[in-house]
């Protein structure tokens, strides 16, 4: 009697099963996007600025400066992509598509982060991103979508090049989104993950440096004191109460808090947007709802599978143990198929 080890056919999960969490997180917010696009997008709030930039790009797309915006401002200092994309496709379609894409990518990132029960944080993140859309921040929503794409790309096997491209597009779409993406790059650098940190730090620095050098932009808009303590308090709570495995998230919160204090002490155009709305609380508005749910769940950061299993990206392989064989299907021995001669 001879035994022959035959590889078992690998069953591919269905599309709905593979993307279960993103589907369940995004689908409940789709009616909210419809309600916003049909009834709430009346041109008030920050949406008025988006419509003004779209109209300027449609009528004077070849013009170097937008002279009606704060006495004159080059389009590159606001966004290299958003005004022209909104002029071509419309403000509402770009806003809705950016919000849905960001919600989907955010849910994928939550799943890959290792949270044991990712549906709750992903759903809350999807709702928070819709609130950002409802406020009319189309340019920032587009930058957030590209920024989350960069973070998701870092979890894949071919992540560095794709992540660098998405980081550059995020900064070109919204310099504010690129600035917040650099916060996560600084957190990666703090945990000695230099390769991933470079993918998140270098592209925004190149884009902002090039636009600042070619089209200088000066000005001071101070931040009021009452805008400081809510985001700083949330960041410090995450640093103090976050799980120890969440080293990147805790370092990002610390860098975020330090950046807010510096933005208050050092007057600069980046402290507030040209429309007057503060920039610093934006990650707090998007990240505060899912953060408590994510902190309450168990799971290592940033990997969902057991630590002994091979991981995508740049993680090294570890020796398979008996505990891993029980938890991970990839570690289970293949059954022997007997054949009689």
Distance between the ends: 6 Å
Alpha carbon gyration radius: 23 Å
* Helicity level: 55-70%
Give a short account of the largest sheet: 2 strands, antiparallel
Across the major sheet, the strand order is 1-4
Question: What is the structural class?
Answer: mainly alpha
Spatial shape:
globular
- The unreliable regions are 272-277, 287-341
Helix-strand pattern? EHHHHEEHHHHHHHHHHHHHE
Number of strands: 4
Mean pLDDT equals: 79
Number of helices: 17
Share of residues in strands: under 5%
Q: What would you say this structure looks like, in words?
A:
With 341 residues, this protein is mainly α. Helices cover 60% and strands 3% of the residues. It has helices at residues 15-18, 20-26, 30-40, 47-59, 75-78, 82-89, 91-112, 119-134, 138-153, 159-173, 175-190, 194-214, 229-241, 247-265, 282-287, 290-296, 322-327; strands at residues 2-4, 65-66, 73-74, 337-339. The protein has a two-stranded antiparallel sheet. The chain starts with a strand and ends with a strand. Mean pLDDT is 79; it is low at 272-277 and 287-341.
